Amino acid sequence: MKVIILGTGSPEGHPILLHPDEFVEKNESRLRPGLLIQDKDNILFDASPDVRQQLIYLKIKSLTAVFITHQHFDHLWGIGDLAQLTWLGKVPFKIYINKDTLQYIKKYMPWINLPLNLFSYNKEYYFKNFSVVPRKVIHSKKFETAAFEIRCKYNSKKILYAPDFKGFLDKIIDNRYEFCIIDGTYFFGKYIDDEDHLEGKELMDILKKIQSKKYYLLGISPWWYKTFSSILSKKLPANFYLPKDFMVIKFR
Predict the structure, then answer these.
(1) Phi/psi at 166 (nearest 5 deg)?
(2) What is the maximum alpha-carbon separation in the chain?
(3) Pair 196, 139: CB distance under 8 Å
(4) Which of 76, 105, 115, 252 has minimal CB crowding within 10 Å?
């Protein structure tokens, strides 16, 4: 089973629009977040504005299912690209979303004609070699947000995809994961007024409670920190990593 990190960037991506040369290392690109679990099934997590580019780059020819964490544009707005597939015929995959995201799509994207399905938190969704369990997290005060736990069918190993959060509930805290692909936006300190994410020591303390062997941090912006990714990587503690777009992690 392959876990492919499709995008690692903050909402504005990197390089920054109209700032293509600032704090950018050679061939560096940090697309908006997403994850692909590739085995006998192809399961996509989040549909960012970069999803078309991401799936074409990987030459993905089929999807089994799509799970969306929440309605923020950097996690959802690529659904417009998926919706274009309906013009080519029946879409062969289901999209799983929470109730707030469903209401958002109905209100602001009424033209979306896709098989939208409400998921239930803490329910296990089974595929050929693994399962997916939605977990409710604290993020925005305005709407609900999910993280997703992926469980290998043949052993007790688990991983966690939690690209945006400011708090976890009991189902996640104290769980043990092989690795987490997780929100690190303000890992090195908060640079704008934002109540949707944790920062610094507060973030580090809650990450340790998850008990993961490795942490791959998403959303860290070299541009906002006014330095380069390679310098930020050297400041990370042991078992913490700043991944690159399309990084592949084998999960057995």
Answers:
(1) -130, 5
(2) 50
(3) yes
(4) 252
Tell me which residue range forms the domain holding 99: 2-250
Tell me the CATH number at 46. 3.60.15.10
Instruction: Label the pairing between strands 215-218 and 240-241.
Output: parallel
pTM over 0.70: yes
| Tokens, residue 80 | 């417009």
pLDDT in tens, 231-241: 999 999 999 99
How far are the Cα atoms of 120, 132, 140, 141, 227 from residue 167, in angstroms, in the given order?
19, 20, 10, 12, 28
Q: Which two tokens mark 22?
A: 């600032």
What the block records as the tokens of 209 is 């409670």
Write out pLDDT tens, residues 6-38.
999 999 999 999 999 999 999 999 999 999 999
Instruction: Evaluate the CA torsion angle 243, 127, 43, 220 in order and state its sign.
Output: negative
Sheet holding 247-250, edge to edge: 116-118, 94-97, 65-67, 42-45, 34-38, 2-7, 247-250
In sequence order, the 6+-apart residues with CB closer than 8 A to the CB of 18 are: none
**Nearest CA-CA partner of 144 in 160, 130, 164:** 164
Number of domains in the chain: 1
Report the amino acid identity of residue 181: I
